[in-house]
Amino acid sequence: MNYFVHPNGICESKNIGKDTKIWAFAHVLPRAKIGENCNICDQTFIENDVTIGNNVTIKCGVQIWDGIEIEDNVFIGPNASFTNDKFPRSKQYPEKFLTTKIEKGASIGANCTILPGITIGQNAMVGAGAVVTHSVPANAIVVGNPATITGYVGVTNNEENKNIIESNVDLISGAKIIWLNIHKDIRGSLMASEFKNDLPFNPKRVFFVYDVPNSKIRGEHAHKTCEQFLVCIKGSVTALIDNGKERNQIELNSMNKGLYIPAMIWGTQYNYSEDAILLCFASKEYDNSDYIRDYLEYVKLSKKNN
User: Fold this and answer.
1) Which residues form the domain of 193?
2) Under a CB-based contact definition with an 8 Å cutoff, are residues 127 and 96 in contact?
3) Is there a catalytic annotation at residue 221?
4) 267, 219, 215, 272: which is closest to 243 by C-alpha?
5) Where is the domain boundary, 128, 153, 178?
């Protein structure tokens, strides 16, 4: 065989890829499928209805139950716990266990718990000890119980570069901050804007987003043709922009600080303050067919366009 099994390991499956190593006291059941160059550490248990991709590392003390799908280049930390039944009872089994998917390049921290039927997105990172109760978007960093998003992998924080923020130059693929004028005197403050002169397009639609719990995220889509302009008119919101290769984020925390998002840029808003009100202008009327809601589909389309 072209893979390694420690003398104190048990591997009943023949579906094991080249150069994979299965270490002491690990147990792999007969129908499990494991790809090439994986490292299955001590005291790991892998059930039957399990698929594991290439270059996967599973550290000590992890159980991979029926219904778990792990894609290439995933890291799973020691004693991470997967589940596959929302309402388990002794000697009572569902017809089919819920599917949990860990997508390419994701990392699962030590001692975290992954509830059944969710997806951990591509390149996402789950912090040690987190309890993940909902699917995690691609590239997101989640921590806590229940796990919430605290940031994104590979983000450039443009708040640290005042020259970029103040000069209205491109942040990423045409996305940019546009500052609107505020007029102040002893009577108070006034912010006025002329669509033709101050915005990059003439809006056809406007909507407000508010009363969003801090743990929730909005957006998570791109538009094929529609452009958007976001202004947080009260409180603060963190806005992520992503072109499929690079990611940047901006804190929208002033009613004269707007973010222009061109078509074919993935946008996500999170970390809403309790009082946040986000105003959005759109260049087109609502059209569901203009939305791209799956990040991996968006990455494929963005590569074609480039």
Assistant:
1) 155-305
2) no
3) yes
4) 267
5) 153
pLDDT in tens, 30-82: 999 999 999 999 999 999 999 999 999 999 999 999 999 999 999 999 999 99
Inter-residue contact 282 to 204 (CB < 8 Å)? yes
| Same-domain check for residues 170 and 225 | yes
Q: How many domains in the chain?
A: 2
CATH number at residue 259: 2.60.120.10
Question: pTM of the full predicted structure?
Answer: 0.86
> What's the order of all strands across the beta sheet hosting 45-46?
10-11, 27-28, 45-46, 63-64, 81-82, 113-114, 131-132
Q: Are both 148 and 159 inside the same structural domain?
A: no
CA–CA dist 238, 251 (Å, integer) = 4
Alpha helices in the chain (DSSP H): 162-167, 195-198, 295-305
The one catalytic residue among 6, 27, 134, 221: 221
- Cα 170 to Cα 175, 193, 261: the distances in Å are 6, 21, 10
User: What three-state secondary structure class fits 97?
Assistant: coil
